[in-house]
Amino acid sequence: MKLKLLSGAVLSTSLIVGANVTQATSLTDGLVAYYPFEGNAQDAGGMGHHGTGNVTFVAGKVGQAANFKGKNTVITATLPQVKKTYSVSLFAQLNSNNRVESQLFYLTRPNRKDRLGYLSTWPVGKKTWHFGSSRYGKQWEDRATKVADPQGLLVNQWYHLVFILNDKEISLFVNGKHLKTIHSAHHADIEAHKNLLLLIGGTTEKYQGMDGQIDEVRVYNRVLSAAEIETLSQGQITTKHETQFSCDDKPSCKKMASCDEAYYQLEDCGRTSLDRDHDGTPCESLCAGHKKPKGKKPKGDQKPVPETKGFDLSGIWLGEGYKCGGKVSQQRFKIEQKGYAIVGTKITGDACVPADSRTFSGTLDTINVTWTTGYANRPACCKMKDKLTLLDNKSIVKKGSKIKFTKTGSKATEEGDLSGTWLGEGYQCGWQVFQEQVQIEQQGNAIVATKITGDACVPAGNRSFSGALDTANITWTTGFPNRPACCQKKGTLSIVDENTLKGGGITFKRIVP
């Protein structure tokens, strides 16, 4: 599951939900921009360098990806500065092999002529990686081409690519492995201190449009280490913008910047409660700036609901009566709760709101929530404020609608039986990507997947993964060609629909019930 950064009009703050997610904080260092392409081209790194473009969004390497269809589809963003040392990380998948050059990224000055850095495929048919840097006005170019494997670049296969400019050297990494380094004689020309243009999926030259998908684009103003590149190549790492807090005492709840700061003081400063106003109500149960004034009766929607005290809605829920595209379907999601703050995350996705997207967030003390809504051609595009009605600890009704949510506990079989033969796309062994076939057995809430098609990393007959459906947590069996089935790795499994599962960068399709 991607780590979610929650902020909105209802909460008027931000907090991190997801106790089972470990964040690699080093991957926030030097981050200039991050584009996960979850239904938009927004900069999720917190720096505000949002992109614009006429692209669509489809299933990607991690969540959704930007879909490019040639010269008329490109994403453009403005970046403030690029030094002589920087890195660009991304995932790419080609639809065809018949273009002169499929441009993945292109960093240029506002005149749109110089290529401070670029990465593409070239030429038609052979399809090698083509990368480098050039200054047209000064008539120089440092570039190289290199093929990743003997059969050339494959279509409909995800590649992870990292472009690094390290002063006098320009390097390319593919699927976590160093492919080639060239030495630049013109590195002093590359640094730029004014606004730059980052073009994703295209350039200013009409024959260089991308035909395929690009996902998880990150720009750093430093060199990524080999370990960081290996981590990024595995996917499932989502970067959030960090806010710095201290353990200094605050005289009142109002003095805290947000619920984030309250949770920081509890989790990182060793405190057990934050009753700063000495009124019996701890700050962590409230959103800073929305605490009711003392001695005044709250009005309207802000009136706390006494019966919500002691409610814990954390767990897996099923929603009946939910509609997407006019069709009524059942949705499955996970609610996480801290104090009065609640967040619902989709486990079973659909065309309107994909798996791992936030389905709603809000506060129990006011019963106000903000829903994520969408359409089949615009998934997770919109927000809508509404109210919930709590029937009890296991039943919720969406006010004014026929949608009812029921807590399932461990009754994962409400979603049906996942037993059968499944085909996985995107499985990696070494630096190569394969298909894998597994047999899934489900007993109640527990599932176990056994390898049918073996390989050097995990031979046939070995367990591929196992876990519990009520938490969506699973354990993968991993290995290396020289150390097969040696290790285990924690992860999550999303049920996209009854015949599609996603986890660990792999998409599984049921082929035999």
What is the arithmetic mean of pLDDT? Answer: 72
Biggest beta sheet summary: 9 strands, antiparallel
- Classify the fold: give the CATH topology of the largest domain: Jelly Rolls
Radius of gyration: 25 Å
Proportion in β-strands? over 45%
What structural class do helix, strand and pairing data support?
A: mainly beta
Distance between the first and last residues' Cα: 26 Å
Number of helices: 2
Q: Outline of this structure?
A:
This protein is mainly beta and 513 residues long.
Describe the structure in your own words.
The protein is mainly beta and 513 residues long. Helix content is 4%, strand content 47%. The protein has 4 domains: 29-233, Sandwich (Jelly Rolls); 243-291, no CATH class; 315-409, Lipocalin (Beta Barrel); 415-512, Lipocalin. The protein is built from 2 helices and 34 strands. The protein has a 9-stranded antiparallel sheet, with no helix packed on it. A hairpin with a 6-residue loop joins strand 1 and strand 2. The two termini are 26 Å apart. Mean pLDDT is 72; it is low at 1-25, 136-140, 238-243, 286-308 and 410-415.
Give keywords:
single chain; mainly beta; Jelly Rolls; 8-stranded antiparallel sheet; 34 strands; disordered N terminus
Question: Could you outline the blueprint of secondary structure elements for this entry?
Answer:
Elements: E1 4-7, E2 14-17, E3 31-35, E4 52-53, E5 56-59, E6 64-70, E7 75-79, E8 85-94, E9 103-108, E10 115-122, E11 128-135, E12 140-146, E13 158-166, E14 169-174, E15 177-183, E16 196-200, E17 210-220, H1 226-233, H2 259-268, E18 315-324, E19 327-338, E20 341-346, E21 358-363, E22 368-375, E23 378-392, E24 395-398, E25 404-407, E26 420-429, E27 432-443, E28 446-451, E29 463-468, E30 473-480, E31 483-492, E32 494-497, E33 500-503, E34 506-512
Antiparallel strand pairs: 1-2, 3-17, 4-7, 5-6, 6-17, 7-16, 8-13, 8-17, 9-10, 9-16, 10-11, 11-12, 13-14, 14-15, 18-19, 18-25, 19-20, 20-21, 21-22, 22-23, 23-24, 24-25, 26-27, 26-34, 27-28, 28-29, 29-30, 30-31, 32-33, 33-34
